[in-house]
Amino acid sequence: MSESVSSIDKNNFNSAVRYLCRADTIYVFGSGSNESLATYLCFRLNSFRKKTVLIPDTDNNIFEKLILLTPKDFLVVYAFYKPTPDIISLLDFVHRRQIPNLLITDTRVPPMVRNAHLVLYAKRGPFGVFLSTPSFPWRLQMPSSSGWPKNWGRRLWKPCASSMISELPTTTKRYLTWPG
Predict the structure, then answer these.
(1) How many CB atoms lie within 10 A of CB 136?
(2) Nearest in space to 157 (alpha carbons), one of 55, 38, 14
(3) Once rounded to an integer, what is the mean pLDDT over residues 22-34?
(4) Cα dihedral value 129, 84, 103, 140, nearest 10
């Protein structure tokens, strides 16, 4: 795990957090097995009151959502495992429209990374071992998990999260015990 975390460019990580905090809307795409990662990121960002849009993994629907993006938005693309023509086309589209974007991947295939604004490359272990599974991408979204430098995620997310973190448990508790 520490080797995978140390393979991530810290400057790109910091830049990605800044973009996520400042974006008007965050669009997230992940096809196939990456879709669950995209859904989870939307869930997490919603807890910070960030407006997120999950881009569906179906041909025309991808571009119906993409035409809504502006340079004030931010696109996050998960591309673990094999690059697909959809991902390459999607990154080309946002590159041409100058939309800031982040590619989270375990590959450095030039057709895929050349149009990415920021790349978080996560080195994975060999096939069949622990880090060859989706566990590392999940941990990438959870900076408090093992392997991350102490307080790295909290320090970066604090300006974005403000009081929302403390408000969520109170609101949840109130409505879970709601009498009606």
Answers:
(1) 20
(2) 14
(3) 91
(4) -30
Q: What pLDDT shows up at residue 124?
A: 65
Q: What is the pTM of this model?
A: 0.74
Cα 94 off chain centre by: 16
Three-point CA angle 33, 24, 66, nearest 5°:
50
Token pair for 115: 């149009």
C-alpha to C-alpha distance for 132 and 66, rounded to whole angstroms: 31
Residue 166 sits at the vertex; the CA angle it makes with 164 and 168, to the nearest 5 degrees, is: 65
Q: Where does 2-176 sit in CATH, by number?
A: 3.40.50.10490
3-state SS assignment for residue 53:
strand
Contacts of 5 (CB under 8 A, 6+ apart): 147, 148
Q: Which residues pair with 29 in a beta bridge?
A: 77
